[in-house]
Amino acid sequence: QVQLVESGGGSVQAGGSLRLSCVASGYTSCIGWFRQAPGKEREGVATSPSGGGNTLYADSVQGRFTISLDNAKNTFYLQMDSLRPEDTAMYYCAAARNWPPVCVLAPAYYPYWGQGTQVTVSS
């Protein structure tokens, strides 16, 4: 089993920045960040192999968001810059343990989920 604990959400004005953190217990092969706005489906934001390597971003956040890992702390992050009102959503970290680590933006690929943290961007 993998447990994920998130932190770092909050409210910010458009153009601002936030950093989300997710502490993982147990082995993972892929980690990712997802979000879900009211009335919308959950969507992938960014993913990465847990050992580092090729990251994948949604087109809507490319160039503004950065996923990173600190394996010594079993923690991964989502740095969110140039935030927009349309980024407002509940954000979730997620993990998978499949091998090889073909990390994709599809939520169904990830069996382990954090509790979610709210991000609100005002105009």
Could you describe the 3D structure shown?
- The protein has strands at residues 3-7, 10-13, 18-25, 30-36, 43-49, 56-57, 65-70, 75-80, 89-96, 112-113, 117-122.
- With 123 residues, the chain is mostly beta strands.
- The protein is globular, with a radius of gyration of 13 Å.
Mean pLDDT level: 96
Provide a count of the helices. 0
Order of helices and strands: EEEEEEEEEEE
Strand content: over 45%
Dominant shape = globular
Radius of gyration: 13 Å
The N- to C-terminal Cα distance equals 40 Å
By secondary-structure content and strand pairing, the structural class works out as mainly beta
Q: Into which percent range does the helicity of residues fall?
A: under 10%
Major sheet description: 7 strands, mixed
The quaternary structure here is: single chain
Got a strand count?
A: 11
* Low-confidence sequence ranges: none
What is the structure about, briefly put?
With 123 residues, the protein is mainly β. It has strands at residues 3-7, 10-13, 18-25, 30-36, 43-49, 56-57, 65-70, 75-80, 89-96, 112-113, 117-122.
